[in-house]
Every structure is written in structure tokens, then in C-alpha cells.
Write a structure and sequence with these properties.
- Helices cover 56% and strands 0% of the residues.
- By secondary structure, the chain is mainly alpha-helical.
- InterPro entries: Bifun_inhib/LTP/seed_sf, Bifunc_inhib/LTP/seed_store, nsLTP2.
Length: 94
């Protein structure tokens, strides 16, 4: 089976991108996914593993949430940032 140079280059590029993490799966932004973090954000309790997982999953959406006046108060609160840091998922620069 012959493989053209172009096909080989494309395959190699995809492998490199996948290894470096530059290929990003699409995320469905849904602020309700962060409800697992509500108790940690509104109190001083530590975030659960489910909260951290959801927060990391929704991280690409945080800038969008900050533009929503209804979500901004909660998402931009000092406790929300503490939770994000505790989960190892700091807020992006928007």
C-alpha cells in the first residue's frame, strides 16, 4: 500500500497536535453544570471532585458566563475564584 507524502504529513501533524493538546474537543457551555460547585462557592466548604471535574470541563465557557449579568455575580465572586484555584483550574484571562 502506497502512502503519499501529503497523507503522511497530515497524519504526523494530527499526531503532534493531539500529543501537545492543541486539538480541543468542543465544549457545550451550560452554567447548570456548575451547580455541583454551589455549596463550595456559597460557603467555605472545599469543592468536591465532581465540582472540580465540572469546573474544568466548563472552564472554556467562564468568559461567556462573566458576560451574563445573571451569572457574573456568582462566577466572579472571590469564593468562586478560590474554588477554581483549589481545583487547580484558575480563571482564564478574559
Amino acid at each position: 500500500m502506497k502512502v503519499s507524502h501529503a497523507t503522511l504529513c497530515i497524519m504526523l501533524t494530527l499526531v503532534v497536535l493531539a500529543e501537545t493538546g492543541l486539538c480541543v474537543a468542543a465544549v457545550t457551555c451550560n452554567a447548570l453544570q456548575l451547580s455541583a460547585c454551589a455549596s463550595a462557592i456559597t460557603s467555605s466548604s472545599p469543592p468536591s471532585s465532581v465540582c472540580c471535574s465540572k469546573l474544568k470541563e466548563q472552564r472554556p465557557c467562564l468568559c461567556q458566563y462573566l458576560k451574563d449579568p445573571n451569572l457574573k455575580r456568582l462566577v466572579n465572586s472571590p469564593n468562586a475564584r478560590k474554588v477554581a484555584n483549589a481545583c487547580g483550574s484558575p480563571f482564564p484571562s478574559c
